[in-house]
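// run 5 | inverse folding | seed 20
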């Protein structure tokens, strides 16, 4: 009887604890599901942001090109019109000179042929100049029309970029809230995971043991390797990882850091000379967490996400590159995907 009472008593205490664990697991699972759904939305938003941003850059490049074409065409038109004006003035000034008087005033047949040839050439040149004026005017009109269309497209994509930028920031904040909730619920290893793999068929020489994701916190990225930059003059040699400004940036491997601040495209930058022999480049940082020359461990906070350099005004992000053996840049996307 005593045993039965003990068992019943134990069972009475065990059941609430079991229910508590079940509820906790359900809450953790619900949070994980929310994070997964939000990650899907973030991926779409990131792709939309990159598409709108790249389109806007191309449109701006087209606008600059059209403006140059219009300026060159207008300058050539001005020169051509001056030539035509001089001819008109010359004809007006010597208007009393009859065409036939010039021809039949020849001393002999040879002189007549020369005068005929000269008058024909003058008439042909006048016709060519007039034709050129008409062509240049049509060219300028067409370029102005294209410029107007590009400006209208610019307004459309500028709105799309602002909207996606706002959505990206909002969803990153929500993602960070969910990650914090998951952490408080006791979820383990949310975010970064170790990885050891090749980054792709073209980059089989790159293999990294213990690589960790470079951003510690809410983030989103897509494969924007090779995208046009600088109006098509250069290609993107890394991946942009979007995150809230001030989000910790960590060392992806053990190594030594070196730093540089510039007012140029990269803004506040950092290089990590990895013990694995590869070099990792971080750009657009908001600031540093360690000093230059510091030896760091993988996963250690070394800087913070920002929007410095030519990223000013865009969504804060980390521009991240991998240089195999410190030389050849390779697409980091598969490595980042595997480590995320």
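// decoded
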């Amino acid at each position: 009887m005593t045993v039965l009472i003990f068992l019943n008593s134990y069972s009475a205490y065990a059941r609430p604890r079991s229910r508590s664990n079940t509820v906790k697991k359900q809450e953790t699972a619900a949070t994980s599901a929310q994070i997964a759904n939000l990650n899907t939305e973030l991926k779409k938003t990131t792709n939309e942001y990159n598409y709108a941003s790249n389109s806007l850059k191309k449109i701006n490049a087209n606008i600059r090109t059209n403006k140059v074409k219009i300026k060159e065409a207008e300058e050539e038109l001005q020169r051509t019109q001056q030539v035509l004006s001089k001819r008109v003035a010359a004809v007006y000034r010597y208007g009393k000179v009859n065409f036939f008087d010039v021809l039949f005033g020849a001393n002999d047949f040879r002189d007549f042929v020369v005068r005929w040839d000269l008058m024909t050439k003058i008439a042909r040149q006048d016709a060519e100049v007039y034709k050129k004026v008409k062509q240049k005017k049509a060219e300028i009109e067409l370029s102005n029309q294209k410029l107007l269309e590009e400006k209208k497209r610019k307004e459309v994509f500028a709105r799309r970029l602002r909207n996606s930028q706002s959505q990206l920031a909002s969803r990153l904040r929500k993602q960070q809230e969910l990650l914090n909730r998951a952490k408080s619920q006791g979820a383990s290893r949310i975010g970064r995971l170790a990885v050891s793999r090749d980054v792709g068929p073209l980059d089989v020489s790159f293999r990294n043991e213990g690589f960790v994701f470079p951003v510690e916190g809410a983030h989103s990225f897509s494969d924007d390797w090779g995208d046009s930059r600088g109006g098509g003059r250069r290609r993107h040699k890394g991946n942009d990882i979007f995150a809230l400004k001030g989000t910790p940036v960590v060392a992806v491997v053990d190594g030594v850091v070196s730093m540089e601040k510039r007012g140029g495209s990269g803004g506040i930058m950092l290089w990590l000379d990895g013990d694995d022999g590869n070099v990792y480049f971080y750009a657009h940082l908001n600031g540093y967490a360690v000093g230059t020359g510091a030896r760091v461990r993988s996963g250690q906070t070394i800087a913070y996400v920002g929007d410095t350099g030519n990223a000013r005004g865009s969504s804060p992000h980390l521009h991240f590159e991998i240089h195999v053996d410190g030389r050849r840049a390779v697409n980091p996307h598969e490595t980042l995907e595997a480590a995320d």
